[in-house]
Recover the amino acids of this structure.
């Protein structure tokens, strides 16, 4: 909405440094049909976060850690904030995910099965309140700032320190996802397609 005032009027902590937002854990069993996993993943959110923070529409660079190792850096500026972003990953395998989302979900499950801790952190940029050109003049409104450059800079820093990008940033590393994940993804997409075909034929 034009000129919408954010519920967060001041940064939480230091928004120039990563904020711990929660952990990924196993959730409840799904009641959906034709799924690859019977049990979903879910977030356990940091209780110290301000009310409404996880759904705030911010420009976000999210960081996934296994124990203390950064394994994935990405960015989002979509509606629903970090909650929507992480839900997008957690439900993969019980919906119609793309290959990347399915892969990250599979990798998180693999680590959880090893009793590893998966924590989520984020750097964020609040929207700026500024004059926007219109057909008849200008309008003052909140405008999101792209998180892409912050993501690029963060990945550059990690590569400079460690000699390569995080292990789950396959595209940046110019690597393919593990073959077992790709095979499962193809199997799952085929199963979903066949289930829809059967459902249509039964009508």
């Amino acid at each position: 909405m034009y000129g919408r005032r954010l519920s967060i009027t001041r940064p939480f902590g230091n928004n120039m440094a990563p904020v711990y937002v929660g952990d990924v854990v196993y959730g409840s069993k799904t009641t959906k049909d034709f799924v690859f996993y019977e049990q979903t993943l879910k977030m356990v959110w940091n209780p110290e976060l301000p009310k409404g923070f996880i759904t705030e529409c911010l420009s976000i660079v999210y960081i996934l850690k296994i124990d203390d190792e950064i394994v994935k850096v990405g960015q989002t500026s979509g509606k629903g904030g970090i909650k929507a972003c992480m839900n997008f990953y957690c439900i993969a395998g019980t919906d119609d995910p793309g290959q990347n989302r399915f892969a990250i979900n599979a990798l998180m499950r693999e680590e959880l099965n090893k009793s590893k801790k998966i924590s989520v952190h984020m750097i964020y940029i609040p929207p700026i309140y500024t004059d926007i050109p219109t057909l008849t003049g200008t309008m003052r409104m909140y405008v999101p700032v792209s998180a892409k450059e912050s993501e690029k800079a963060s990945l550059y820093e990690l590569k400079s320190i460690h000699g390569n990008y995080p292990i789950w940033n396959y595209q940046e590393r110019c690597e393919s996802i593990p073959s077992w994940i790709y095979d499962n993804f193809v199997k799952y997409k085929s199963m979903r397609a066949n289930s829809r075909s059967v459902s249509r034929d039964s009508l």
Remarks:
- Helices lie at 81-90, 99-112, 148-162, 170-173, 179-201.
- Residues 196 and 202 are 10 Å apart (CA to CA).
- The longest helix spans residues 179-201.
- The chain has one domain: 19-192.
